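Hi W.,

Here's what went into the run:
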Amino acid sequence: MASRAKATILDIAREAGVSKSTVSLVLQGSGLIRPETAVKVRKAIEDVGYVYNRGAANLRKAHSNVIGMVINDLTNPFFAELAVGMERVFQSAGIVPFIANTAENPVRQEEVLKSLMEQGVAGLIVSPARGTAPGAFRRLETAGVPVVFAMRRLPESRIPVIAPDNHRGAYLATAHLIGKGHRRLAFFGGSSDLVVYHERLGGFREACEVLGITARDTLVFEGETSRKGGIACLDTALAMAEPPTAALCFNDAVAFGVLLALRKRGLEPGTDFAVVGFDDVVEAEHYMPALTSVAVDSAGLGERAAHVMLKMIQSRTTRAEDHIGAVNLVVRESCGPDRRAGLGDAA
Amino acid sequence: MASRAKATILDIAREAGVSKSTVSLVLQGSGLIRPETAVKVRKAIEDVGYVYNRGAANLRKAHSNVIGMVINDLTNPFFAELAVGMERVFQSAGIVPFIANTAENPVRQEEVLKSLMEQGVAGLIVSPARGTAPGAFRRLETAGVPVVFAMRRLPESRIPVIAPDNHRGAYLATAHLIGKGHRRLAFFGGSSDLVVYHERLGGFREACEVLGITARDTLVFEGETSRKGGIACLDTALAMAEPPTAALCFNDAVAFGVLLALRKRGLEPGTDFAVVGFDDVVEAEHYMPALTSVAVDSAGLGERAAHVMLKMIQSRTTRAEDHIGAVNLVVRESCGPDRRAGLGDAA
DNA sequence: CCTATCAGATGGAACGTTCCAATAAGTCAA
DNA sequence: TTGACTTATTGGAACGTTCCATCTGATAGG
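Here's what came out:
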């Protein structure tokens, strides 16, 4: 049905015997029109199979109610969670956010940002791809589009950030390992082009220092932030003359790799080698053994980011405060029992 | 920098000392303008910090190069993979697709579709939410927007579908279990409001019938399509007087649940109870024991769907052929060795 | 010198909305 | 009856593009 050409408000106006202005008012739910007229118009809208043309409207209105979420890796459940948290908030605000994936590729990210801008987004929540150039968001800034970073930040930028307390999380995890009696510790995975990496590594280092682990007993192995990276890290670590007995992993994926590699060598995770992850993705709980990990509540951070964005749009500002989310260590089985001679504490 | 109001092609025209038409032509890369003029214009574009207004352009052009992907559950890596496959194709076609998540909620889906239509999408790839009403896509159809379904289909619709060969996959998996010597089989998880469920269950039933398993030895347990659902299915199955010895699971998540529940009961997956999954998500390979599963190549299906969509848009049609993707059984450890007395075949 | 041809550039009318200012039709007080 | 005010409705100009039709000079052929 419906003639080939799309119906416009003029078609509705003709059908309902009113002016286009009246139709426009009805569409916006204005209280100025007589109820009976509104009913008549709404009927006509149904009859002609009208679909609202937001592009045309934005041409006049200049603010667009479209919000973009730019995610660096959608296949990582951790970031998918983040996206879902944001969506929840936007949904209850009656707006539909568009998600775009950059697959950790700065060039792709550039394209995505350009496209989103052309679409006239009202705001952008971004988890920047690794290796993002320092000036990548300048365009957005000069255009006055509100942007907030989620999970990750860029080295020098003034864009507000919503992220977990990486430093503290790493500190807690490291303290836990030391508390278990480990004296030679490793940090596995990640690479220094990520700010997050420095934050987590910083927490690790600080804990070691404060709790009496010497510098030569704190080992750092960079590597891919994936299972594969974890496997590689463990292999090179165990090849050392004096290998570590425990590792804090950059994220859970790395930790899973380590667990796997341990099993493959016939070592028992937890008793032979302790490992703790970071992010606490859902699988952590279900792994064998269950992974001890730093929970960051990514969905919660997503919600927070969405709220900040909404507020920024509303107050038409491009600045906002950073928000550092609380973290907590979820102790499961991958660090085994205490390592000291005794039989652990009585609790 | 950049004055408060956004720059338009008129600003560029003024800056470059040409007409707006010329600027427009340059933007479209027309060969009609003299190279030096083009250079001059491009410089002006940079200078004024111009961002293209696609909304305004679409107003005239009426076809929008925006493609939407509507996904029922982004946190499921299986669907995330699908999305990534599609993205890959669209990227090389130079277009940026927008992803929207429906979280398996038909109401949300309705909102998402509406929003996407208002945005003037050129086409839509949809993995419909469970419980989608039969007429949910009529609007799209009458508007002449090309739509293709991915992974899932709706009962009566004429919309083209890109999906794996669920029936055959289930058949293969079931035959494998029977080949291992199992004589009392279960189908775990899923519910009948999904067409996929019927397809997979159908393959299971056919294999049982053809390969000589009596109807009373083929058990079906509906349940959530999650780890939790798998755990529940196993519990009720093992509570039976004469429990099954093997199960085909609706998907990998269910299978993981079953594996977990077996371990919790002190049973060894594979030897005590065989389980095969469906979808072959990345985790399947890394589980303990590694999960035997039906691989469906979701990224490949995503690519296929994207290609079909591109073709539909290009030939401005709303119809296309269905595409049923090949599947294959990836045998790992979760079904253990053969069950018959002998020591298996000599291969 | 005139006319055809051609490359390059341009004005103006759309496209489908919103919103301001204006209008029409009541209602009510003076 | 008049004017002030209210309520409901409306025309028209804008928003930033595209694209058709037109215009301007050059160049070339006769």
